[in-house]
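Continuing the batch. This is chain 6 of the set; chains 1 through 5 are on the previous pages. Same settings as before, nothing changed between runs. Recording input and output for traceability.
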Amino acid sequence: MDKFMQSALDEARKGLSAGGIPIGSVLVCDGNIIGRGHNQRVQKGSAVLHAEMDCLENAGRLTAAEYRKCTLYSTLSPCDMCSGAILLYGIPKVVIGENKTFKGPEEYLRSRGVDLTLADSVECKELMKAFIEARPELWNEDIGV
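Output for chain 6:
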């Protein structure tokens, strides 16, 4: 596992240890992490703080040129909302830890020019699988089921 996906996985574990859903994300620009986040819907009672959204929020305001140099790492395939943010800000590359427990609109992102890489991480899959088995009601709430 590369160091950036490992950082996203560390964020996911941080979210889980705080009572939340174990999904993490980091935003990388020029080889440096400039934003990190984890799903905080439970912790903050938020409707929108998925890991990617928290990560983008924590990165702060960036110019369009800066976003175009970024890669977003997420332990789980981005949902429709997070995919919309990726498109809105023109983030050209996304590395996905896993897409077996949930698969967002990956083909749509590709059709819009986003370069997606699937890391197919065993660690990411095991973390989500264990969480979904333990807290199916919370997982279903998070994905809108």
